[in-house]
Structure formats: C-alpha cells, structure tokens
Prior knowledge:
Layout: H1 2-24, E1 28-33, E2 37-43, E3 59-61, E4 66-73, E5 77-83, E6 101-106, E7 124-128, E8 132-137, E9 157-159, E10 164-171, E11 175-181, E12 185-186, E13 199-204
Antiparallel strand pairs: 1-2, 1-3, 4-5, 4-6, 7-8, 7-9, 9-12, 10-11, 10-13
Amino acid sequence: xxxxxxxxxxxxxxxxxxxxxxxxxxxxxxxxxxxxxxxxxxxxxxxxxxxxxxxxxxxxxxxxxxxxxxxxxxxxxxxxxxxxxxxxxxxxxxxxxxxxxxxxxxxxxxxxxxxxxxxxxxxxxxxxxxxxxxxxxxxxxxxxxxxxxxxxxxxxxxxxxxxxxxxxxxxxxxxxxxxxxxxxxxxxxxxxxxxxxxxxxxxxxxxxxxxx
Length: 212
C-alpha cells in the first residue's frame, strides 16, 4: 500500500513537472482558468477542439514569434480573432469560455512600419493601448491593413488630430460594421472594436457624409 502511494505521488510529480516544462518550452499553452492558472495543455500544433478544454479556455500563453488564431467553432470554423501575445481577458470578455479550436502559425515579426515624427500632424495607429508601442501615421484610405491585422500588430489605440475623421470597418475593402472616430480612442480586451479593425477611410477638413 505504501509503495502504491509513493508511486502515485511520483506520477503526480511528473505530471506537474511536465506541465511546468511545457509552459517554459516556448509552446503555446492553454489554461482552464484566468491568470494562466489551473489545468493546462501545451500545443505543439493547431488544435481542432474537443475534450476538456472545449469552451473552457480562460487564458493563453503565446510565446514570441507565434501567431494564434482562436475560433468560436471546432475545426477552425466560425468567428475568429488573432493573438500575437499572452491572452488573459477576464470574465465578461467576448471570447471568455467561447474558444473551440485554435490555429497556430509561426509569425515573422518585422520591425515597426513607421514611427511618426509628429503625432499631431496625421492620424496615428498604435499597437499598444494608451498610444504606446509601434505606431504608423496614415493620411489616405487603407483598404486593408496588412501590418495591423495581427501580423504582426493589431490596433489598440488611435490618435485623431482636430480636423481629421476616420471610419473604421470590421472587414477589408470598407465592408462590414463601421464606426466613426473623430477623437483619440483606446481599446482594451473585451471592447467591441478590439482586434476587429480591418480597413479605414480617412477624411480631412470635413466629416464623412452618411451613408458611408
């Protein structure tokens, strides 16, 4: 009986070590609790869904150099959203407890597209909240945002100087849901427009005429 207990303890210890090693090995790791706690699983390849983590993922570790796409359906179907950094949104966020499959790609992280010399001259996109991180000034329409759709950056905040107006869209080529922006704005996980902007119309001097 004593030997059986020691054997079980040894197996449990190896399980804990394996989980710890997985989280330290540069793999994408999914957790069933917030703050990267609880049961976890390291992913060496894309995950089609199923099992105990189905609709039960509450936080994700994303190592540098990886791009993760989360899906609301199994087999990479349904609503999707890209991640290029650790994800820990907390209860109430749209994706909290909704993830059913995950696609994993190695991302080629490139240098910042542009660091604008004068943020007051043009509208500026920022990869960080509160106007921080990599940035790009824009002065013309953007039918698609190749560097800002999660490869490698996403739009987390925007500065819009007086006299400039932006219309942001959820799809390329100015399609999908739209939103007028005429002042500085910052997004956080759980916000409606967090990681959702895929094209932008730019206006100077006068606001956009409705309908857009």
